[in-house]
Design goal:
Layout lengths: L1 H20 L9 H10 L3 H4 L20 H14 L18 H13 L11 H12 L5
Helix pairs in contact: 1-4, 2-5
Amino acid sequence: MRKQLISTLALLLGFAATAVTAQTGPVNGNAESGAQLYFDHGCHGCHGYSGYGRKDLNNTGSPWLMNEEIFRAFLRARADVAPLLPSTDMPNYPANALSDAMVSDIYAYVRSMPANQPETQDVPTLRTILEAAEQRQYRP
């Protein structure tokens, strides 16, 4: 429990410090290697092949992407204190699943993604699908 509390406090302090400065940190990893890891570890399942998916990465202003240390802390905290962060569907990525070097590479790849979300307003079939999905009521 103490380890969870310390991890959570470190994560929150890092988040607060980054939010105050609002600057993105340097990229130290290899984006090409990061791309392969991004696909190998299934990141594209939620974040899409280009950073736009169920959970967008590009142009979100996410504080978790402000710098590599915050990104790594988020991945590690998910493994250590996942019950304290219930609002996210992110999988757990402890150091034995993704090394620090691998996290650096994935971070480099994510930061290299262009801000090029496609326009969808003028795609009639897609509009029909999205409107139908909005009308559906899901019942557990």
